[in-house]
Write a structure and sequence with these properties.
A two-stranded parallel sheet has the order 1-2. The chain has helices at residues 28-35, 46-53, 56-65, 84-94, 100-115, and strands spanning 41-42, 70-71. It is globular, with a radius of gyration of 15 Å. The chain is mostly helical and 124 residues long.
């Protein structure tokens, strides 16, 4: 919900479910990511999938704009259970709607940079 500028201004407990429909500019997430370059977002939960795909044009622009601050991962080990956002990112990178730089940063580059992983010989 917080991705959209028209998110209800009610107590958080009263806001149930995921937002639907087109995203209105000026959401809390956009403001926070723009204001704080040291803020990072984890895209692994289903709520991130809902936020990014409810309005795919806005969602893809959001991913491009904040590509240095977003990380996607999963703890799913069942190969038959494909995380929906992972499949969405793969498909949008394949069809050219998500740039390769943004895709690589979100899927592994930002984690490598932030956590210093894969820098040593024999790493990723």
């Amino acid at each position: 919900m917080e991705i959209s500028g028209d998110c209800p201004q009610t107590p958080p407990a009263a806001r149930k479910g995921y937002g639907k429909g087109l995203v209105a500019p000026g959401g809390t997430l956009e403001r926070l990511f723009s204001t704080y370059p040291n803020l990072y977002g984890d895209l692994s939960a289903f709520s991130a999938y809902c936020a990014i795909t409810r309005d795919s044009d806005y969602g893809l622009a959001f991913l491009e704009r904040f590509q240095d601050q977003l990380l996607f991962a999963t703890d799913m080990t069942n190969q038959r259970n494909v995380p929906p956002l992972g499949a969405f990112l793969d498909a949008r990178a394949a069809d050219g709607r998500l740039g390769s730089d943004a895709y690589e940063k979100i899927c592994f580059g930002n984690a490598r940079r932030l956590f210093g992983i894969g820098q040593e010989k024999g790493g990723f």
